Amino acid sequence: MLLQIVIASTRPGRIGAVIGEWFTGVAKEHGGFDVEVTDLKTLDLPFHDEPGHPMSGKYEHQHTKDWSATVARSDAFVFVLPEYNHGFSAPLKNAIDFLHREWAYKPVGFVSYGGVAGGTRAVQGLKEVVTTLRMTPVTEGVVLPMVRGLLDDEGFHPTEPISQSATAVLDELAKVAPALATIRGGAER
Predict the structure, then answer these.
(1) Residue 189 confidence (pLDDT) above 50
(2) How far apart are CA 25 and CA 3, in angstroms?
(3) 160 partner at 20 to 30 Å CA-CA among 22, 113, 137, 186?
(4) CB 89 within 8 A of CB 120
(5) How close are the terminal C-alpha atoms of the chain, in Å?
(6) What digits encode the pLDDT tens for the residues 75-130?
(7) C-alpha closest to that of 173 among 41, 18, 40, 31
(8) What are residue 6's phi and psi, to 5 degrees?
(9) Could you tell me which of 109, 161, 154, 114 has the C-alpha nearest to residue 135?
């Protein structure tokens, strides 16, 4: 099973890459998945530029075809996301909206960060989007309130409860992903 970790922040000075690097290490150590990372900053998708509706699956641009292949081969996702103005980032919504069928029947977990709310409002808004695409959000999540207090020049330093929550997300994804893969197999016939 392939876990795709998506780092959603693209802005200069972001901390999402450091948090994503930490979670990637935890995921690799967990051993429940092969792990890939997609950083939306380096993916650099333009604002949705396909002339056809994503439901058609007929893409004209190579960047869309490449993104489609990445999402299609993935069995589970973790979005590492900040909260901006009580919501999730525009680059994440854009990346999601490029595609449609490729997301269906795949579990998704969240590593959210921010101020007092730790990105939870962004996750709540994102759950509406992913469930519309037939993704299955897992209940467990990693919430990082006041995240800057866990960072220094040497990186991200999670507390024990944060590390435990990361393991819980991965454990749940590892349970759900094989069952949903069976559903996808049935849906493809």
Answers:
(1) no
(2) 12
(3) 137
(4) no
(5) 20
(6) 999 999 999 999 999 999 999 999 999 999 999 999 999 999 999 999 999 999 99
(7) 31
(8) -110, 115
(9) 109
Spatial separation of the C-alpha atoms in residues 11 and 41, rounded to whole Å: 8
Alpha-carbon distances, residue 178 vs 91, 127, 181 (angstroms): 29, 21, 5
Q: Where exactly are the structural domains of the chain?
A: 2-187
Query: What number of CA atoms fall less than 13 Å from residue 170's CA on the CB side?
Result: 24
Helix 120-132 to helix 90-97 angle (10° resolution) is: 10
User: Is residue 119 within 8 Å of 113, Cβ to Cβ?
Assistant: yes
Provide Rg for the chain, Cα atoms: 16
Cα distances (Å, whole numbers) of residue 96 to 48, 66, 154, 172, 188: 10, 14, 32, 22, 21
Q: Which pLDDT belongs to residue 185?
A: 84
Paired strand residues for 84: 87
2-187 CATH:
3.40.50.360
Report angle CA 152, 157, 163 to the nearest 5 degrees: 160
129 contact partners, CB below 8 Å, separation of at least 6: 93, 96
Check residue 161 and report its DSSP letter. H
Burial 55-77 (b: 16+ CB within 10 A, else e): eeeebeeeebeebbebbeebbbb
The CA distances from residue 128 to 113, 134, 174, in Å, are: 19, 10, 22
